[in-house]
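User: Can you help me understand a structure? I only have the sequence.
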Amino acid sequence: MDSAARPILFVSLPESGLLNPLLVLAGELARRGVPDLWFATDEHRREEVEALSDVSKVSFASLGEVVPELSAVTWDDAVYREVTQSSRFKAHRAVVRQSYRPALQARKYRELEQVVDEVRPALMVVDCVAGFGVDLALARGIPYVLNVPFVASNVLTSHNPFGASYTPKSFPVPNSGLPARMSVRQKLANTLFKWRTLGMFLHPDMAALLREDAAIRKELGIAPPNAMTRVDEAAAVVCSSVAELDYPFDIPDRVSLVGAVLPPLPEAPDDDEVTRWLDAQSSVVYMGFGTITRLTREEVAALVEVARRMSGTHQFLWKLPKEQQHLLPEAGSLPDNLRVESWVPSQLDVLAHPNVSVFFSHGGGNAYHEGVYFGKPQVVRPLWVDCFDQAVRGRDFGISLTLDKPHTVDPDDVVDKLTRVTSDPAFRTEAERLGALQRAAGGRAAAADLVTGLLPAA
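Assistant: Let's start by predicting it. Here is the structure, written out as tokens:
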């Protein structure tokens, strides 16, 4: 094999939900000995990328430091409140306004351009939110694989009434949190969501950004944006889902549904302490709300109260970031059935444990698919945008329940939802059925086969 002629370049934004599936895929190729693997992302992820090296090396290519305006983890509290507000459309609009920054995207484009000039990849694998990666692949004529960690309809459904779409016109718009079967009022809301999305770009501020984007694209030699271009021009689209976890529609041939893309397990075989604790329990509620969720003191107190009320039936394992643990009640006042960890070495190992009865999460794309993969019923407190879409699907497919008021934490509501999904075996039965379908789809092995099959002959 002439490795110099066949480099593969992975490109991802640094957010865990986007990055992790690509880390798993790159690691699988490294274990297979596929040569000339490169991974481009922001500098602070260097150590994780370099740790992937195995039979073959994964070389890190820096895209510089994090651009705070483009990273949800670094948004200030005012922006966080705006993008997680109760109005689905206003939250969607806030995310668009915050992340549509042509000059900042161009900065990442130029960083990646230097990497591409050095690596000269034969194939790129790009996360679906890293638009600058798709733009550069198209500008240079480099074949690319688009990686999607959400349900497939997330990237195949138009957000405006005139855009190309692979789903029917009546299909729920991404980020709307609407179900497939809608009331008359919901159908109206779905239609208005599209028109309001189109209308937001008529605002003078957004119109100015559109002009700025057009000027930058002309300077860089990038084609005008089109929502479906990233899909239509891809050599293949790898989606970490299966058809049964989305509402039905005709999946285009270029989209491969491979199920959750997970590393070999156990992921953290030396994590004896948490494993021994899980072994000793009869039923555990695992609470993990992702890397973006910012709980208030009142919400933290409410979740502690939930554990206290369920002390006779369940133990609780809560992954609560260190920077939020000061919100906990005073030391010694936590219920005996609550274990708080700032980090668990492997969330996947926890979900795979047979004594974990339910996954209480924010409903992100990875959380939704990982919980189902391991056959766990879920209770969802949706955080923002796509989380509401996963939550409504999980509810409709009988694998999860959603809090009645997800923008707060009502102990009565949480206890009710946790009790219902753990006491009714139908939730677990359906989750296990769908988990088996995910495993049968092939996951990281199927994704790796697809990527290597697209490499040009040596």
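Now, to help you interpret it: The CA atoms of residues 85 and 91 lie 6 Å apart. The chain has a mean pLDDT of 95. Let me know which part you'd like to focus on.
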